[in-house]
Amino acid sequence: MFSRYYGVLLIKFREAFAYRFNYFVKIASNFISLLIIWFIWKAIFAASTGVMAGFTFDSMMIYMSLIIVLNWLFSSFEEHTMEFEVRSGAIAMYLIKPISYPITCFFRGIGSRISTLILQISPFLLTAIFLVKLTWPVSWWFFPSVLLSYLISFNLIFMTGLWAFYSSGHIWGIRLSRQLMQNIFSGALIPLAFFPLWLMDIANVLPFIAIIHIPVSIYLGAISGTTILPSVGLQIFWVLVMSGLSYLLWAKTRKKIFVQGG
Question: Rounded to two decimals, what is the model's pTM?
Answer without folding.
Answer: 0.88
